Structures are given as structure tokens and as C-alpha cells.
């Protein structure tokens, strides 16, 4: 006959050891199960839609890494962007964005509209972004759409965009009119000292990729994932 010793009769030290072993075993099993579940999830698809601030931005890998860590699932960011182009070009690229079937669309399309030599009026820019947003909402009703303002401009690149704030405001208004989100990254850039800002954006318009990753990606991670992610 096998005699089972009552659990309470086991010495306290031995009980503690057994309970700790059981706890850590459960923790390992939970972690493995969670990791396996995360790996089985399809990637979160994001399309970054914009100008050279996206095409040359360099912040996309940091967004993938940070967001994946927060959400515990794969994240893939694809760019539909071209340097020097305006919202008129973007109207011809909506099919490409839709074809990617993204879960989230990040949009910045005001920067070149605002340059004097491209002759895109404020009214035209506002109409274009409105048309783009309408098409995306109609064709991708489940997608989360976030319109963005990027970094401040300076030097000659700033001088040729004297009314850029008005273009930003117009795009923000069109987004908010449709119940869409708007993220303004400029305030985070402007927390840098003047010297640091000049170093971070040496040509007055295109941030260094490492600095763009530090400024833009965490803000987007927090906005998309919530729960204090990105801090």
C-alpha cells in the first residue's frame, strides 16, 4: 500500500521549493504558448503613403520593430511614396495602396503641395486629400487611416513653403471631418534645441533616418498600440 503524505505535512521549505518550481513551469508554458500564438498571427500590414519624407524617411523599420514588440505579432510596413511628388500624383496611386490591403494607412501629402514652384493651390490640395481619403474609406472600410504632419522645415526649403502650416491645417481638417485620426510630429521635433534640430535635419527638410526613427516611430507606436507603448 502506497502512503501519500498530506501536503500540509510536507516541511515548509520543501513546499516553497515545489511551489516555486510549479510557478516557473507554468510561466514558461504560458510564455511559450503566447509566443506560439503571436507567431501564428498574420502580419499587421501598414502602408506609408507620401512624399520623400516617407520614401527617404528611414523610420519604417523602427516602427515595425517597436510595434511588433508592443503588439506581440509581426508587423510589415510598405511604402507607396515618391520624392518631389504632390497630392496630384497621390491620386494616381490609390490603386496601389488598395492593392496592398493594409490594416493601417499612414498619410503625409502636404509638403510638396506647399512649395511655391509646384503651383498646387491650397484649395486644390484640400480637394485632393479629401478625394484620396474618400476613396480609401470606400474601398478599404476596415482600414485605420492616420493623416500626419511630419517635421518642421527651415532654410531655403522653408522659404519656398511660406504657407505650409495652412496646408497642414487643411489636411487635418479633411481628416477630422471624416472622423479620421491626425498625428502631428512637429511638436516632438521642436523639443530639440536649435543646434540639435539643425543637425537632425541638415538640408532643412529631410531628417536623418536615425533621428526620424527616434522621433516618429515611438509616437506612431503609442498612437497605434496604446498602453504606453513606445515610451
Automatic annotation (TrEMBL):
An example Gene Ontology molecular-function term: hydrolase activity
RNA-binding is among the record's keywords: no
Pfam families registered for this protein in UniProt: Lipase_GDSL
Keyword Transport recorded: no
Gene3D superfamilies: SGNH hydrolase
Keywords: Hydrolase
Stated name of the protein: SGNH/GDSL hydrolase family protein
